[in-house]
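Example S7 (structure tokens).
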């Protein structure tokens, strides 16, 4: 089945998206600033995320990460939140990924193994609140994920679709592409799925608004 890839995000298109936001828009981050953020925190922005932040830096709300003047501890906490959420479910809710080695009997040993496994997965980079993009060098078009522990859902087929969904209530009727590596397990709902195939929205939601949206997206992709 052929997958229609979204076009790369341009500065002009990014500025158009930012006009939809309920936020102040400051000057965009320069290449030097973007490189410095990546070096400081040890991750890589995806190509479309870099373009979006180069077009302008949303601010005026704590939900937007301030990559220029934000508190480094807050930014580091946002970056670690997806992994810490998985670890929380390992400790308190019995989660264990099927690709990992057998779970140790002791909780502390299980956490140690899980943390070691999670150190190898693709970094998720905050876009807004608990919405994340995979940090993949030179790549664009990944879905934006809404991440709450191991409840992980697609909230936009790509960055542009996400902005329209989050801030105007509109979303693409096209099926979403799979995301990367480890995180696709949650998007697809478990083992036995083909991560190269388009993915409808998972039925799991963290609030009523998301539940209604996922029902609508399932209907559109049927």
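Recovered sequence:
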């Amino acid at each position: 089945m052929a997958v229609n890839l979204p076009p790369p995000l341009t500065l002009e298109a990014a500025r158009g998206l930012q006009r939809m936001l309920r936020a102040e828009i400051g000057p965009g981050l320069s290449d030097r600033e973007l490189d410095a953020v990546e070096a400081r925190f040890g991750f890589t922005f995806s190509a479309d995320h870099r373009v979006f932040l180069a077009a302008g830096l949303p601010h005026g709300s704590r939900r937007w990460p301030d990559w220029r003047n934000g508190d480094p501890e807050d930014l580091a906490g946002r970056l670690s939140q997806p992994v810490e959420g998985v670890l929380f479910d390992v400790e308190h809710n019995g989660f264990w990924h099927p690709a990992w080695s057998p779970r140790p009997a002791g909780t502390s040993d299980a956490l140690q193994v899980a943390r070691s496994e999670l150190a190898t997965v693709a970094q998720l980079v905050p876009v807004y609140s608990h919405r994340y993009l995979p940090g993949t060098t030179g790549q664009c078009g990944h879905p934006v994920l809404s991440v709450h522990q191991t409840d992980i859902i697609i909230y936009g087929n790509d960055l542009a679709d996400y902005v329209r969904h989050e801030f105007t209530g509109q979303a693409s009727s096209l099926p979403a592409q799979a995301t990367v590596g480890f995180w696709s397990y949650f998007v697809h709902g478990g083992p036995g799925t083909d991560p190269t195939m388009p993915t409808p929205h998972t039925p799991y939601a963290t609030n009523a608004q998301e539940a209604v949206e996922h029902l609508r997206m399932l209907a559109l992709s049927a």
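Notes on this example. The mean pLDDT is 84.
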